[in-house]
Automatic annotation (TrEMBL):
InterPro entries: TonB_box_CS (IPR010916). This is Secreted protein. Keywords: Signal. PROSITE patterns: PROKAR_LIPOPROTEIN, TONB_DEPENDENT_REC_1. Residues 1-22 form the signal peptide.
Length: 367
């Protein structure tokens, strides 16, 4: 994926000297005269309008980030990785001299963020890395004062990973057990290079990746190919999904909203608390969708919402959390592109009833 930012073109206007009225100041930026030998009109520039300050700063940040990040990769030992984790994921960290990097979009600023990891091993064969975030979107290099982690424990099967977001907003910190794949994930917003406090942990299984998550592909700091190409080092996770369907992609646009169960339905179907909150992509108008794997058949119906996440309280008082990263995008316009085999309608009465479900996005964009 090539990362680029459009630079505002600078228009150079030609002002010719002329008679001025009283009180006017005439600035001559170019003169024209006729060459007596050739008869051609010759223009001599005296000056050109300078770029606005904000455009200069933006262009500087856009054009200089590869050079700034290259300096970081040239001397990774200069940075302090023993900084707090906003999720309190504390691991003993004694750098072993191994450093890796990745390029992701994490704060929606345009230029990518640099993730720099420092590996550490101990006498128990625990092999974890701490991860710092770097950004140039503020016009200069910023470094996070917090860290995330990834790696594996030497015993017990404990694992940790860092994932990017298809929306280009925030980072996911995951923890799981290698045997079953069961674990939890939290989402951290990223402001500049600052990593925010996490959302509440959501249950997950690494064998069934969640929509909107991207795998981070770490590169040795000596290999600058990705940096030189300006390419994000992320990829779609492998999903155990239904067979592909030979139909066009499904593209939906709408506004991210949060609605309670009471706002969506008169009576909760399974005794859920009516105050349960559901995060939805509300379409501009209901439209028809086709579920190609609906209980072994093809099934079509209209839907007004796409289900994104939830804060649901079950009939027994248990809280079910899912897709909490969407909470901070309420009111935003979003476009989702989905392969047809990854859209479906529930075959049970789970909330929100009637809303379209999506198991993987081809792309997700904030408009």
């Amino acid at each position: 994926m090539k990362v680029s930012r459009a630079l505002a073109p600078l228009a150079c206007a030609l002002f010719l000297a002329s008679c001025s009225t009283a009180g006017e100041t005439v600035v001559v930026t170019a003169t024209e005269w006729v060459d007596p030998d050739s008869g051609e009109v010759v223009t001599t520039e005296i000056g050109a309008p300078s770029a606005p300050e904000d455009a200069t700063e933006e262009n500087s940040g856009a054009t200089e980030w590869p050079a700034e990040y290259a300096k970081v990769l040239d001397d990774p030992e200069a940075y302090n990785f023993n900084v707090p984790s906003p999720g309190r994921d504390e691991v003993d960290h004694v750098p072993d001299g191994e450093y890796f990097y990745a390029l992701v979009e994490a704060n929606g600023g345009g230029a990518p963020e640099l993730l720099l990891s420092s590996m550490s091993s101990d006498e128990h064969s625990n092999h974890f890395a701490r991860v710092l975030v770097f950004s140039t979107d503020g016009g200069s290099l910023q470094t996070s004062g917090e860290s995330l982690i990834y790696g594996a424990a030497g015993a017990g099967g404990s694992r940790a990973g860092v994932e990017a977001s298809q929306l280009g907003r925030g980072l996911f910190q995951a923890h799981w057990v290698s045997g079953t794949g069961d674990g939890s994930t939290v989402w951290h917003d990223v402001d500049g290079a600052t990593i925010s406090a996490p959302t509440e942990p959501e249950e997950m299984n690494v064998q069934y990746p969640r929509p909107g998550h991207l795998t981070v592909n770490w590169q040795p700091t000596q290999d600058r190919a990705a940096l030189d190409a300006g390419e994000l080092t992320v990829s779609m996770p492998e999903v155990r999904g239904p067979a592909p369907v030979d139909e066009p992609d499904v593209v939906v646009e709408g506004t991210v909203v949060a609605k309670t169960g009471a706002e969506l339905i008169d009576s909760m179907p399974n005794g859920e608390d009516p105050a349960s909150e559901y995060l939805l992509l509300q379409l501009d108008a209901p439209r028809e969708f086709t579920d190609h794997h609906h209980a072994g058949s093809v099934y079509s119906r209209d839907a007004e919402y796409v289900s994104l996440g939830r804060r649901e309280i079950s009939a027994r008082g248990n809280e079910r959390l899912d897709g909490l990263e969407w909470e901070r995008l309420q009111g935003e316009r979003v476009r989702l592109t989905v392969a047809p085999e990854h859209v479906h309608f529930p075959t049970d009465t789970s909330m929100p009833t009637g809303a379209l479900r999506v198991s993987q996005y081809k792309s997700a964009e904030i408009l």
